[in-house]
Amino acid sequence: MSRWPGSPHGSGTTPRGVGAREPSIVLFDEAARVITKAVCEWAGVPLDAEDVPKRAQQLVATVDGFATPSLRHWRARLARNRLERWLTRHIVATRNGAGPASGLAPGSESILEVVAHHRDADGELLEPRIAAVEVLNIIRPTVAIAWFVTFAAHALHHWPEHRERIREGDDDYAEAFTQEVRRFYPFAPFVGGQAPHTQVWRGQEIPKGAMVLLDLYGQNHDPALWPEPYTFSPARFLHRQVDPDHLVPQGGGDPAAGHRCPGELVTVEVLKTLAAKLAAMEYDLPAQDLRIPLARIRNSAAQRLRPGERPPTCPLIVHLLACFRYIGLGNPTWYTQIQTQRRDDIMAAQIQGKKIAFLTADEGVEQIEFTRPWEAVEQAGGQPELITPGGEKVQAFNHLDKADIFPADKKVADANPADYDGLVLPGGVANPDRLRMDASAVRFIRAFFEAGKPVAAICHAPWTLIEADVVRGRTLTSWPSLQTDLRNAGATWVDEQVHVDSGLVTSRKPDDLDAFCAKAIEEFAEGRHEGQQASVS
């Protein structure tokens, strides 16, 4: 990926296709540096260019170690101590008149100057260390927006249909996209507090003094609040007032009295601005695992440590005895167990309960290309069903040798594509050759594209896609001998381990199965893709 214009490293180069190229970057790291430089300049905190990477790394560490009972926690504490000492020096220098000019209009004061000269209720200046903490409490959460910037890039890469409206300056759509990024992606796991008095919430008694957690990710994916919560859809925020009691990516309640981040509006505006730059950027993305593990949210204790004395009760308010013991917050006597959709991976969480059709001929499917994706769907929480022309059984093959026999679930002529969330087409030379002669099978396949649903095809399976006339204008890979047939059908053929084109996942051969299965699960999790429908319009 090209560096951003104005990057603190390099010479302010432009994106690919516009000017000179620079070496690749890690987007998250670059975003953190850009925001660090910008917020320090805005706050009047002096920061030399060569110090930007170090301070950005320290600021990221303080956020990354939020309530984490691990090495990340201690790394965060060390980074915070260093940042507080650094800012304390600037507070003292500012009070002594040795601080830098703010660069603001005459009569204006920078954040650093305001905090440095602030006096408490007794008319006393704040202790330098306390004043430094106050400045840090402005800078640190601003740099945390780097997570949202990276999530925005992830969304634009997976759903490129959103790029054009943002790039064209549609401010309403850019804000809707920003809000959906904040809802959809896992920024923080929870926020905590202590009950000031005994109360009852949805039938659950919460004693005075109980430590209570608000499950942010679970709230933002509650199907009672968000239809199809695991589908990325900015349209849900178009021309709609955001309900602060529903959308809680940065805490809930009133910012003045609750746990909601007071910088939320700043986050939205910064993210809108940077999302527009991302949408306009051309880039090359090297092959990598783009899944987002929920275990890597800034706290993972809530996902691993679950007391077993009581059954799950409340989905939003939780009290984790073991969690609080582990992170040193005491040993309260009352708790409820967490009940949220926590999975090892966000994509695995999204496929939970989804029905995935596996379509094969009655004979000739390559066994490993059938069984491995089937196992991947099951392990991710999906419900695979085997559909065949005969509807009775499937004779699989290991290359040219007969292998196992598998019972079919349904006859393709009786199967309704509307009942399924995705389709897998395993390979084998004879398998797709037989399928493309079955009119019901061809109609079944085409229906998935007409509905915009994801389809995964491996090896020789794209033969059936050609017969269904759904590859025109699409880019895909396959067993190499199919490339001429695909090009003649209007497709662009590429020699890649796995290729994804707006919900269409393709791979070349059994050696590619790991990448194929991972991408298939990812696309099934994402749901409908407008790009799928383009090839049948």
What does this structure look like?
It contains 20 helices and 17 strands. With about 525 residues, it is an alpha/beta fold. The strands form 5 sheets. The chain has a 7-stranded mixed beta sheet, with helices on both faces. Helix 3 packs across helix 5. The longest helix has 25 residues. The two termini are about 35 Å apart. The N terminus is likely disordered.
Structural class: alpha/beta
Q: Going across the biggest sheet, name each strand in turn.
A: 11-8-6-12-13-17-16
Q: Overall pLDDT, averaged?
A: 81
- As an assembly, this protein is single chain
Q: Specify the biggest β-sheet.
A: 7 strands, mixed
Rg, rounded, reads: 27 Å
Please state the overall shape, judged from the principal axes of the Cα atoms: elongated
Cα distance spanning the termini: 33 Å
Weakly predicted, low-confidence segments: 1-21, 101-107, 298-349
Strand content: 5-15%
> How many helices does DSSP assign?
20
Overall strand count: 17
Helix content: 25-40%
What is the topology?
Blueprint: H1 27-43, H2 52-64, H3 71-95, H4 111-116, H5 128-143, H6 145-158, H7 163-167, H8 171-184, E1 190-194, E2 199-201, E3 204-206, E4 211-215, H9 216-220, H10 264-280, H11 301-304, E5 317-318, H12 321-326, H13 346-351, E6 355-359, E7 363-366, H14 367-379, E8 383-388, E9 393-398, E10 401-407, E11 410-411, E12 422-425, H15 430-435, H16 439-450, E13 455-458, H17 462-467, E14 475-476, H18 483-488, E15 492-493, E16 498-501, E17 504-507, H19 513-526, H20 530-534
Parallel strand pairs: 6-8, 6-12, 7-9, 8-11, 12-13, 13-17, 14-15
Antiparallel strand pairs: 1-4, 2-3, 4-5, 9-10, 16-17
Helix pairs in contact: 1-2, 1-5, 1-6, 2-3, 2-5, 3-5, 6-8, 6-10, 8-10, 14-19
